[in-house]
Each structure stands twice: as C-alpha cells, then as structure tokens.
Amino acid sequence: MSLKEYGPGLEGVIAAETELSFLDTEKEKIVIRGYDLIELSKTNDYLDIVHLLLEGELPKEKEKEKTVEKLKENYDLPMEIFSIMKLLPKNTHPMDGLRTGLSALAGYDTDIENRHLDINKERGYRLLGQLPTVTVNAHRILNGKEAILPNPLLTYSANFLYMITGEVPEDWQTEIFDRSLLLYSEHEMPNSTFAARVIASTNSDMYGALTGAVASLKGHLHGGANEAVMYMLNDASTVADFEEQLYQKLVKKEKVMGFGHRVYMKKMDPRALIMKESLKQLSEKDGDFLLLEMCEAGEKVMREEKGLYPNLDYYAAPVYWKLGIPIELYTPIFFSARTVGLAAHVVEQHSNNRLFRPRVRYIGKDY
C-alpha cells in the first residue's frame, strides 16, 4: 500500500489473513471456519463453537465431553484473585474489575512464556473456564456481596447463568443464554480482536492480549452498546415514550446505541434477528411484550429516519434484562463469550506472526 493511501479508522484495510472467521456481506453470512454462524446457532451450542474455533472442526461426542471436562477443571480461581477484587474502589466498573482479574491470572501461569500451539490452546480453555467466575464475582464483590462459587454439576452456560442470578436456571433459560454466548463468540476483526492481535504480534502473552481487548470492548462504540441500549429502554415507560426519545436524540444529532455497524451498513445484523426471536420467546413466557414492542418501534424509527438497522446489542440487551442479568454485566458477559474467539486469534497470531507496525499520513507543519 502506498503511504499516500489512507482509510480513516483503517476502514477497508486488510490487516491479517485468518482461517477463523469472515463477514461475507454479499452472501449475508458470518463464516466461522467455513460454517454459517447463524445456521450453527440453530443446531449447535456454545461449546461446539469453542471446539470449532480452537481445534478447527466441530466436535464429535467424545471430543465434546473432553471440552466440558477441560472447562470444569478450570472453573475455580486462586483465592488471591478474590482478595485483589476486594481492594478495588467500589465505584469500579465491572469491566475494569474483569480486566484486573484477568491480568492477575497471568501470574499463576507457570509456563507463561511458552507460545507453543498446544500450550496456547490449553491456555485458551483455561481462560474460558475461569473468566465466568472472574466476570460474575468482580460484579458481586464490587457490590458488597460475597463471592459465589461455580457449580460443576451444571453445564457451562447454566453454571454461568447460575452464578449471575444465584438460582439454577430452567433449561429454556439456559438455551437462550447459551445462544447469546454463541452469537457473541467470534466476529472477524472488530476493534477488540484487532487490539488483541496487535498486542500478540509483539510476542506478548495471551493474558496481556486479552487484557487489552477488555479495555477496547469497554467502549460504548464497541461492546458497551448493550448497556446503553438497556438504559435507553428503561428511560421509557411506553412505546410512544421510546419513539419520542429516539426522535429527540436524532434532532440533537446524538448517537443512538444499538444501531449501525461498520460492516452491516444496509441490512440488519443477522445475529440481531436471532436475539429478536429470543426476546419474543421470553415475552411469551412472562406475558409482558412491552420491551419487544418498544424495540420493534425503535427499529422502525431508525430505519425510516436514518436508514440504520439494529446490531446484536440492540436485542441482546432486553433478552439479558428478562433473564434477570444486571445491566453492568452485559459487556463483561460479551467479553466472556468472545474469549474463545480472542484466544483463537492469539493462537493464530503467535503461530504465524508478523509485528504490526503501520505508518501515518503526516499533516503537521512543514519541515
């Protein structure tokens, strides 16, 4: 590329070659190692995607059982991690608590300088097992609650939801939550994944790369959008209130969270459609359709006024609300789900590495 060429925000710039995923906007597919993620969401669960991303293929029954055991072996945390969380100021955001806990885990990896493919994969499984426990307890401890320990008798997603709510979930609740984790698992090269790969390209360890990804994902222009959506919905009490809120934001030229995507410019994020169906399912369960009606009305307003369509966060937010998940945990859950994709990217980066070192277009004073 010529130094005269410039894509603001690196838009249109190819930054890496990958076998992991691709957003094919022409065929309207989110490709995960050759599979359509949306189709996978109809027949497979999150742990199938974990195996697919880290091992390169969907698991057979015995391989799935092995994945389950690997994760359960890593549910527990060193007790010192809880002590570190207790030292954080109480106004710390759970994403910052998660970032601190994740970074601290590096000290317990006795082989941290080993970048071998198999070691890196095992590191990915270890973090997948540990991070739900970190995620939930960062929030609990910062809110003055006692830490909750994982329940190894539950499935991965059921245990995650149990730690969040303190109650063993029904199968249908677990299924909806698991589907959300699957949809958040991997999405090509968003800012947080790029941040992780840039850090990994220096030959830094997986913990450092993922810690940088947490910082990236915290931003409202990336993962923080799901929290912002729920706050918007809660600021309205009727469909008309929500529509008026959106019109006012548009008049003031404020960004409306949950709409628009750098890749999905002219159509709805296909993951959002799946979460919309989950919201319908939850609404039918509790008989309360207000959030669904508000979201559908908001979808129409933004399409007609701005030509924008919902992304995954727009419908994931009310789904998490109906599952009883605190708003402050929406983005940390996003990160926990994306851990497998991030780990797979770090593994890939370390396996065929080249240091990222872009150039700039100088627009300063003459010299």
TrEMBL record:
GO MF annotations, alphabetized:
citrate synthase activity
Keywords in alphabetical order: Acyltransferase, Transferase, Tricarboxylic acid cycle
Task: Give yes or no: UniProt keyword Transferase.
Answer: yes
Task: Report the Gene3D superfamilies cross-referenced here.
Answer: Citrate Synthase, domain 1 (1.10.580.10), Cytochrome P450-Terp, domain 2 (1.10.230.10)
> Reaction catalysed by this chain?
oxaloacetate + acetyl-CoA + H2O = citrate + CoA + H(+)
Catalytic site positions? H261, D313
Which Pfam family, just one, is annotated for this protein? Citrate_synt
Kindly give the PROSITE patterns that the UniProt entry links to this protein: CITRATE_SYNTHASE
Q: Which residues form a coiled coil?
A: none
Against InterPro entries, the record matches this protein to: Citrate_synth-like_lrg_a-sub, Citrate_synth-like_sm_a-sub, Citrate_synthase, Citrate_synthase_AS, Citrate_synthase_bac-typ, Citrate_synthase_sf
Q: In which pathway does it act?
A: Carbohydrate metabolism; tricarboxylic acid cycle; isocitrate from oxaloacetate: step 1/2
| GO terms under cellular component | cytosol
Q: Which GO terms describe its biological process?
A: carbohydrate metabolic process; tricarboxylic acid cycle
Similarity section: Belongs to the citrate synthase family.
What name is this protein filed under? Answer: Citrate synthase
User: In which organism is this protein found?
Assistant: Alkalihalobacillus alcalophilus ATCC 27647 = CGMCC 1.3604
